[in-house]
Amino acid sequence: MFAASASPRRSKWIAPPISSPALSAQWIVPLPLQSRACVAGDTGTVGGSMLGLPGLRLPPAGFLLLLPFLLLLLPATPAPHRASYKPVIVVHGLFDSSYSFRHLLEYINETHPGTVVTVLDLFDGRESLRPLWEQVQGFREAVAPIMAKAPQGVHLICYSQGGLVCRALLSVMDDHNVDSFISLSSPQMGQYGDTDYLKWLFPTSMRSNLYRICYSPWGQEFSICNYWHDPHHDDLYLNASSFLALINGERDHPNATAWRKNFLRVGRLVLIGGPDDGVITPWQSSFFGFYDANETVLEMEEQLVYLRDSFGLKTLLARGAIVRCPMAGISHTAWHSNRTLYETCIEPWLS
């Protein structure tokens, strides 16, 4: 449907290192003590009546004159070691590009100077509608060399649809070294809502009948249909979804065990979202909550994928590796530019 670009571009942004001010050491050389005991024939001895230490001898006067010059020969005091932060990889969402994250880059530069931040400039704009497995492959080729150069690990910040791309990456990469996976307003349990994106893409369809398109082979060629989750047609979803049902472990496939093991390599899963998002529907999908058949939201702990631990959610929670950070008053397009959100929900996990 969309022609694949021959060589995907990557935009790399490196925060400039801060310069450490030179340290100066101040040396204080004591003056010779004056005492009645300093008499001819014994000018280097201070009597015990002065210091209470009998027989204490001062160094020769010539040595004291040379002392400042000898101190110059000593090695300089080393500058304090500046913390080295793990590289950060950013994956954008639907219809986005790397430019959308300029504010986030500024925040990271201010709070974690010297951090290498890479915003992957792949599948921008309408290219982001391409099938998610195709995008996963492209992003995998981009992140692998970054991870290889960072043996201490990396952090992922993945926004909206990009959060699903990143979760798939963690599933299929058996050698990833992701410390913090920060899912920023991402429909992790799927999407079921009328939004401006849908109206533009499918102008004659409503959420109630979009399953007719999305659960067809043709519909699965669109990224948004890869995570369309209609709670009123669960059987069709399970059989037709070529992406979400697989990474959720809701449908059997031969890689399920390996994908679960890979996903559990992550150090920490940070989930961010809020009730005023306006796009992710239900907004609790950002926290692995979703509708039941009556459109009542069931939280993560009530979902079958959690109860069955089909891809590792229950295990992660048991080891204290899931952080949930809900925040009201933020619309969908403002998550990556809101300073308060960054300081509260993102910055603490960029070690």
TrEMBL record:
Cite a single GO MF annotation. Answer: palmitoyl hydrolase activity
Q: Is the Signal keyword given for this protein?
A: yes
Record's catalysed reaction(s)? S-hexadecanoyl-N-acetylcysteamine + H2O = N-acetylcysteamine + hexadecanoate + H(+)
Q: What is its EC number?
A: 3.1.2.2
Taxonomically, which superkingdom?
Eukaryota
Where in or outside the cell it occurs: the entry states:
Lysosome
Which InterPro entries does the UniProt entry name for this protein? AB_hydrolase_fold, Palm_thioest
Name the Pfam families for this protein: Palm_thioest
SUPFAM superfamilies per the UniProt record, alphabetical: alpha/beta-Hydrolases
Q: Which Gene3D superfamilies match?
A: alpha/beta hydrolase
**GO CC aspect terms:** lysosome
- UniProt keyword terms in alphabetical order: Disulfide bond, Glycoprotein, Hydrolase, Lysosome, Signal
Q: Which family does it belong to?
A: Belongs to the palmitoyl-protein thioesterase family.
Function per UniProt: Catalyzes the cleavage of thioester bonds from S-palmitoyl-CoA or S-palmitoyl-N-acetylcysteamine (unbranched structures) but does not have activity against palmitoylcysteine or palmitoylated proteins, branched structures or bulky head groups. Conversely, hydrolyzes both long and short chain fatty acyl-CoA substrate.
The name on file for this protein is Lysosomal thioesterase PPT2
Q: Which organism is it from?
A: Tursiops truncatus (Atlantic bottle-nosed dolphin)
